[in-house]
Write the structure tokens for this entry.
Amino acid sequence: MTSIQSSSFYSDLAWAFRMISPPEEYEQESKALFEWMEQYAEIPVRSLLHLGCGAGHHDYTLKKSLQITGVDLSDSMLKLATDLNPDVDYHQGDMRSVRLNKQFDAVTIFDSVGYLTSERDLKLAVATAKEHLCEGGVLLMMPDETSETFIQNSTSTITADDEAVQLAFIENYFDPDPDDSTYEGTMLFLIRRNGQLTIRNETHTLGLFPISVWRRVIEEAGLSYATEIYDDPDTARGYRVFIGVKNR
């Protein structure tokens, strides 16, 4: 999370993230992303800075191959990440401004990059990544949406349960103004404990940029540009991965 948007999902509802999106589901995706890190980097990839690491679900797989440092704005999500990955070094910070005074072989920003709602914010995050990259290192960013892939009013539902809670999570994407660089992501939680129903909902403002903007921001930062598509077998759709290399 990178915005100061007030969000229950990243505070008192953070526990629900583990239920609707368990870390085991990230294994195949994380392995594909690591292969691209190795493919595009000009140096061996042994260390990773994960900006907007959330609850550490990508790290759960990536730590098997990399020494990871994670950064996120949400204290609640960092607590989940630390509990899942006690061997990872986590820090609270904003991907637009954090400076750790260290360099890494790779930097990643996955779906949390969606909280960058302006081109200026995107440039600041890429500048942060470049600052932390070794020469020859690689940046990977994977937004949920680009302007080219966005489907108006798309809706998905996930259900999960454990011994104490039955949960239904509904997410809807809607763009009220196609001429700006944002869209709305509305989340609805149906939470049942001991037969008692609680309904929570919130709307997040998320960034939406065409591929040309992603490319320009990466190249203007002085990084070499490339792109790949990750085909997700669970959602049956492709997610574009934007890659920047800090050439030696």
Observations:
- The longest helix spans residues 27-40.
- The chain has two domains: 14-146+209-245, 154-206.
- The mean pLDDT is 94.
